[in-house]
Amino acid sequence: MTAQHQEPGSIGRTPQQIRTSLRDDRSPRAIRAALPIEDLDAFDRQYRKALRTAADDLDLTPLHECVESWWRHAVLRADPVAYQDMIDQAEEVQRRVESGEPTGGMAWEEAEARLRRRISAGQ
């Protein structure tokens, strides 16, 4: 598989195209190309910091963790509407928690398992 030049940001690609590209290529270049433009500075800062830490400590763990975290973020951000819905729901739950209202919902373990299944399926 050869690397293809990818422009930063996800302009012009569908959520499914972005997720497919991320499923096929988890490189920092592919992750950066899938991110919305407003996330690029944060990605660049965190990636470079992880590179420096890995070099200083002779340990790639921080770099792998950074790439994995940003890969998940890129998968979630692939669909801007679904991402905003998720943020809105989280804010509503937080508001309810802070005001003492019941939140319903599901156990953390179930939510985590569902999210892992979706990520594995590239959704």
Give a description of the structure.
- This protein is mostly helical.
- It has one domain.
- Helices cover about 70% and strands about 0% of the residues.
- It has helices at about 15-25, 30-35, 40-55, 60-75, 80-100, 110-120.
- Helix 1 packs antiparallel against helix 4, helix 2 packs parallel to helix 4 and helix 3 (about 40-55) runs antiparallel to helix 4 (about 60-75).
- The longest helix is centred in the last third of the chain and has 20 residues, at about 80-100.
- It is globular and about 45 Å long.
- Pfam families: DUF6247.
Give the tally of β-strands.
Answer: 0
Largest sheet: none
The N- to C-terminal Cα distance equals 23 Å
The helicity comes to: 55-70%
Low-confidence stretches: 1-6
Radius of gyration: 17 Å
SS strand fraction = under 5%
State the shape: globular
The structural class is mainly alpha
The count of domains is 1
Order of helices and strands: HHHHHH
pLDDT averaged over residues: 88
What is the overall number of helices?
6
InterPro entries: DUF6247
Biased composition (Polar residues): 1-20
Pfam family, one: DUF6247
Region (Disordered): 1-27
Describe the structure in brief.
Helix content is 69%, strand content 0%. With 123 residues, the protein is mainly alpha-helical.
Give the SSE map.
Elements: H1 15-24, H2 28-34, H3 40-57, H4 61-77, H5 80-99, H6 108-120
Helix pairs in contact: 1-4, 2-4, 3-4
